[in-house]
Amino acid sequence: MAMYYYRKAAAVFIIIMALMLPLFLEKEEETAVINLEQVIAASAHLSQIKAESSADPEVEEISLAEAENKIMEILRSESAELAAEKSYSSILIDQSIYQGGKNITRELAARIDENYR
Questions:
Q1: What is the mean pLDDT of residues 73-83?
Q2: Superkingdom, according to UniProt (predicted)?
Q3: Three-state SS for 109?
Q4: SS3 11
Q5: Share of the chain above pLDDT 90, in %
Q6: What pLDDT does residue 73 have?
Q7: Residue from 18, 16, 34 nearest 75 by CA
């Protein structure tokens, strides 16, 4: 009869541990922050796009708006991939009101230069 109570206690213990285990294995996500001007200055590829842009639409170089769109498209795609790899909950670009988060400006600039050579 005593073995019956041990089996019940063991079953309850296993159920409790199975329910609590996900709480301990959950990976903490953090917010990342990017400074737009610094990432453009640190990345050779983005600096080249910015240098090729022209405010004068008659010049055959790409327009300023097209350059800005191209830079933001690259930043969005690369930061999304980086967020997935490093488990960032979100990546904020040039949010001066946000305090905290991990600054990944240099890491993102290096990644862009590596992928867009």
A1: 91
A2: Bacteria
A3: helix
A4: helix
A5: 22
A6: 92
A7: 34
pTM of the model: 0.67
Question: Which pair of tokens denotes residue 51?
Answer: 């240098």
How many CB atoms within 10 Å of residue 91? 22
Largest Cα span, the chain:
94
**What domains can be seen in the chain, in order of their start residue?**
27-115 (3.30.910)
Identity at 94, one-letter amino acid code: D
Provide DSSP, 27-90.
PPPEEEEE-HHHHHHH-HHHHHHHHH-BS-TTSSSPBHHHHHHHHHHHHHHHHHHHHHHHTEEE
Run of H or E residues at 20: helix 2-25
Find residue 30's DSSP bridge partners: 88
* Residue that has been written with the tokens 């019940």 in this structure: 8
Residue 107 host element (H or E): helix 105-115
> Please, what is the Cα angle at 86 between 67 and 71, to 5 degrees?
0
Residue 68: which of 94, 88, 91 has the closest Cα? 94
